[in-house]
């Protein structure tokens, strides 16, 4: 039987291995892990591999992904990473815990939790400088005070998210700020916070260099589990597998052509005016994959091919004069953006492999 293309091959054993190694590593200093499943569209098999590796929660930004995992029988504590006011009822019905920063939204969650006869658990996110979601420390106490008056909400933790939007490093200073915030909130409101969630895959460097982790007892990891690297410098973490995902695509044209387009230059399909280097006649390869499927910048050829450009349905490569045949397959390593796009594309087949 012909192999399916394009396809993404996924090694569950490598993902399980990474989750296990990271749980062991972070567990040494009392840090539990949430496995973040959003980049893999809440794939139940991948979530299960993370759970087998030891993660205590599965966190996703989309309710639909959580629903998919629950329907597939994944049993764990589900955390919603991004909460929208308009989805409050669905959040309460589907997630055990949600991350929150807006009082309006938390009031709505309380309303629907009451209607469903539930207590909804929340983690309140602090803004520590990255400028994506978060409540500024100066407004944090008021938020907690108001939230504590809501009958069907339980604050089970606080957290922060760095190195995502603003590229701010989760260093010792940021982590001790979060620890101090946890201490003062607990003291002021006579609360016991179960979770102090210090961040994501960018927290590795801080963790490795920290003498002690303060109150931080949880991290939410996506990329480190899936790709085996940290995200401050995108360095591989020792002992982790970095090739759990591989993308395969079919060669649909292979010809020797000039490297410089000929004719009058105008805009390309995406409104850019491309610039090319004249390298003479080269063997060029086109694969049946395009921007509708993949973040092309997230691809790295495992076959020594150079990506020259792309349109919605085509990626054009320089084959380095390798005479690739039409119908043959080429494969790529994917970065996080590449995995996110490939797993989301309905055109890319998902195939689990035993490696
Ligand atoms: C709030 C939040 N926490 C954690 C993560 C996981 O980040 P990373 O994949 O870098 O570990 C993300 C992003 O996916 C996120 O949005």
How would you sum up this structure, described in words?
The chain has 355 residues and is an alpha/beta fold. It has two domains: 12-227, Alanine racemase (TIM Barrel, Alpha-Beta Barrel); 245-353, Elongation Factor Tu (Ef-tu), domain 3, CATH 2.40.30. It has ten helices and 16 strands. The strands form two sheets. Strands 1, 10, 11, 12, 13, 14, 15 and 16 form an eight-stranded mixed sheet that branches. The protein has an eight-stranded parallel sheet with strand order 8-7-6-5-4-3-2-9. Helix 2 links the parallel strand 2 and strand 3 (57-60). Helix 1 packs parallel to helix 2 and helix 4 packs across helix 5 (103-115). The chain is elongated, with a radius of gyration of 23 Å. The model has no long low-confidence stretch (mean pLDDT 97).
List keywords for this structure.
355 residues; alpha/beta; TIM Barrel; Elongation Factor Tu (Ef-tu), domain 3; 2 domains; eight-stranded mixed β-sheet; eight-stranded parallel β-sheet; 10 helices; 30% helix; 25% strand; binds pyridoxal-5'-phosphate; pyridoxal phosphate; PLP-binding_barrel; alanine racemase activity; isomerase
Number of strands: 16
Low-confidence stretches: none
The assigned structural class equals alpha/beta
Total number of helical segments? Answer: 10
Rounded to an integer, what's the Rg over CA atoms? Answer: 23 Å
């Amino acid at each position: 039987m012909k192999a399916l293309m394009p396809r993404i091959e996924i090694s569950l054993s490598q993902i399980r291995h990474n989750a296990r190694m990271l749980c062991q590593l972070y567990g040494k200093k009392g840090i539990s892990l949430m496995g973040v499943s959003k980049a893999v569209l809440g794939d139940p098999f991948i979530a299960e591999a993370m759970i087998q590796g030891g993660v205590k929660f599965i966190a996703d930004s989309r309710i639909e992904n959580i629903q998919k995992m629950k329907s597939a029988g994944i049993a764990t504590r589900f955390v919603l990473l991004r909460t929208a006011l308009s989805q409050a009822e669905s959040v309460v019905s589907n997630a055990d815990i949600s991350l929150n920063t807006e009082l309006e939204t938390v009031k709505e969650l309380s309303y629907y939790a009451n209607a469903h006869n539930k207590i909804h658990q929340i983690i309140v996110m602090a803004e520590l400088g990255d400028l994506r979601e978060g409540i500024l420390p100066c407004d944090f106490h008021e938020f907690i005070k108001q939230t504590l008056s809501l009958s069907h909400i339980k604050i089970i933790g606080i957290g922060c998210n760095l190195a995502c939007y603003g590229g701010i490093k989760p260093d010792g200073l940021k982590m001790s700020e979060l620890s101090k915030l946890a201490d003062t909130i607990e003291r002021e409101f006579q609360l016991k916070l179960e979770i102090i969630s210090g961040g994501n895959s960018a927290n590795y460097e801080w963790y490795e260099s920290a003498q002690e982790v303060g109150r931080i007892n949880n991290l939410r990891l996506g990329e480190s589990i899936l790709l085996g690297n940290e995200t401050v410098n995108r360095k591989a973490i020792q002992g982790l597998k970095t090739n759990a995902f591989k993308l395969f695509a079919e060669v649909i044209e292979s010809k020797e052509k000039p490297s410089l387009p000929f004719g009058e230059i105008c805009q390309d399909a995406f409104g850019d005016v491309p610039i090319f280097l004249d390298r003479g006649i080269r063997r060029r390869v086109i694969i049946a994959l395009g921007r509708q499927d993949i973040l092309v910048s997230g691809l790295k050829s495992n076959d020594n091919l150079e990506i020259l450009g792309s349109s919605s349905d085509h990626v054009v490569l320089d084959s380095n004069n390798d005479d690739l045949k039409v119908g043959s397959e080429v494969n790529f390593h994917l970065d996080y953006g590449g995995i996110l796009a490939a797993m989301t594309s309905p055109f890319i087949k998902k195939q689990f492999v035993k490696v």
